[in-house]
Amino acid sequence: MTPPATDVDWDALRALAREAMTHAYAPYSGYAVGVAALVDDGRTVSGCNVENASYGIGLCAECGLVSELQRTGGGRLTHFTCVDGNGEILVPCGRCRQLLYEFGGPGLLLETPAGILPLSEMLPQAFGPQHLTK
Ligand code: THU
Hints:
hydrolase; metal-binding; zinc; Cyt/Deoxycyt_deaminase; 31% helix
């Protein structure tokens, strides 16, 4: 069961995202990003953006997060936060909402500038794994 938003230490999760952000490699955009999430078994995972001289193939912080999720045993994301280079709460980009949907589904709770919201509100009518099995 996903713990409700109020039972989660969002400050601690945001601190982990801020720490991850300090490892960003963003020489092209100059825009560092850090993310962190809780997993349904109590683990935490995090990530930072890693850019590339071929600008379009840079990796968002969420790419690192889902990679760490899978590498450390899989599971489902339950709570997620994202911060910018100033440590301020940031919304995940559109593509990364899709990544989060794959591993957290519509009930994943996101910390956003507008409060704690389920992914179903950040990515309505999502295309997902369920469509491929129809
Ligand atoms: N970025 C992320 O890492 N995650 C997001 O959700 C938003 C954007 C990165 C990509 C790029 O390295 C930089 O922010 C500027 O777009």
